[in-house]
Amino acid sequence: MDMVPPKSSDRSYRAYGVHPVRDALDEQGDNLQKTSVSQEDRNETPNATTKNSTALATVSQLQELLELATGLLLPYAFQPLTAIETYLPGLASMWPFNISSSFNPSKDIHDLSGKVILVTGGNNGLGKETILQLAKHNPHKIFMASRTESKARDAIASIKSQTSQNVDIEFLQLDLASLPSIKKAADQVAAHTDRLDILILNAGIMAVPSAKTAAGQEIQLGTNHVGHFLLTKLLLPTLDNTAKKYNPDVRIISLSSAAWQMAPNIDTIVSTNKLIAQKPWTCYGASKAANIMFAAELARRYPQFTSASLHPGLIKTDLYTPNLEVNPIVRYGSLLMGGLMFQTIEAGALNQLWLAAGARKDEIKNGQFYTPVAKVHSNKWATNTKDGKRLWEWTEQELKNAGY
Ligand SMILES: NC(=O)c1ccc[n+]([C@@H]2O[C@H](COP(=O)([O-])OP(=O)(O)OC[C@H]3O[C@@H](n4cnc5c(N)ncnc54)[C@H](OP(=O)(O)O)[C@@H]3O)[C@@H](O)[C@H]2O)c1
């Protein structure tokens, strides 16, 4: 099978700066790209082969959607109410017996005077909304850690225009797929502050095509987990100094997802060769299970901090763009069902805002996984100490191999 170069319109390659590593893309992407290239480059009307490819692509896309739906919904076959609470918290909140939190960040987050905050992926979506809400409560400083500087500058201007406080928001260049970039960002933090009260590990990519980071990990696990692991590790001295010198209530909040349900077993998660052979959604599930394991293991190893992971709900953000672009079935499905399925970005940020600054320290169960809003859920990846230790040790070894 020939390798077809990615189309310039494919945001997954362009924006993520990744390199395909398998000698063939998964069937779906391959068929789609072959179809596009043959039509554009030869300026011909589609021939029979192209039509076949399109049909095959459609079948494969349908299959992908079915796998996604069953992967996410089947585990809740006997708990339909939990499924609705997890995926449609907006609908669940309308029930008469609703017990969902009435958390309101404007009035339920107390004064953050003196506190220093860092949010990864702060230039967009849930991260940007999180910074906006925290900025309204007078923190000393917020680091907006972001990959795309222009988006960060726009986001900072937009947040400042919506807050009355003259809050100090510093742009921090961070590419989680690049270990040198993470080291540089951590050095910048250490040079500018000896205090960090709230670290929100929010940035993420979802279901992008198969690739590896420069350090050799599968791209989604590498970005969503390994990158955040190194950032946290490098910030530990500042976090520890904060707990000892300024404020015993230091929090590290990890954005996971209900997609942890789609993760493969731990043997596959910690084997790059096995993981990279999986489909993009499985790799995303692996990275989100890793976020849960990381938060739990961090709480076991560093009990002086409060560490938790969470699912934010289903929120229509740019996270879905790569998938919407390549899979028309997902695109049309979301157009038809989006209004019912997706919540607003404001609602989507509530769970992380509650964990980071709304809840009292003694209200949070250290190391646990939360669904929207403020609901602790027992999770096998959080409670399995053996797997948590294995992932931690594997990640440390990967970083050591890369010189970190
Ligand atoms: N939206 C949902 O329904 C949903 C559901 C479950 C979980 N989540 C989780 O929520 C988190 C936030 O996602 P979102 O929905 O707000 O998506 P989003 O709007 O696409 O934001 C993702 C953020 O991550 C940043 N990012 C991506 N790759 C990066 C890299 N290599 N280095 C540094 N930053 C990078 C992006 O920066 P650039 O814009 O500069 O690329 C962007 O700021 C993710 O961890 C996601 O897994 C979301």
From TrEMBL:
List the InterPro entries hit by this protein, alphabetically: NAD(P)-bd_dom_sf, SDR_fam
- Tell me where the signal peptide lies: none
The record's Pfam families line, in alphabetical order, gives: adh_short
Q: Where is this region: Disordered?
A: 1-52
Give UniProt keywords alphabetically.
NADP, Oxidoreductase
Lineage: superkingdom: Eukaryota
| Classification via PANTHER family | RETINOL DEHYDROGENASE, WW DOMAIN-CONTAINING OXIDOREDUCTASE
Q: Which family would the database say this protein is a member of?
A: Belongs to the short-chain dehydrogenases/reductases (SDR) family.
What is this protein identified as? Uncharacterized protein
Q: Which organism is this entry from?
A: Exophiala sideris
Output the lineage of the source organism: Eukaryota, Fungi, Dikarya, Ascomycota, Pezizomycotina
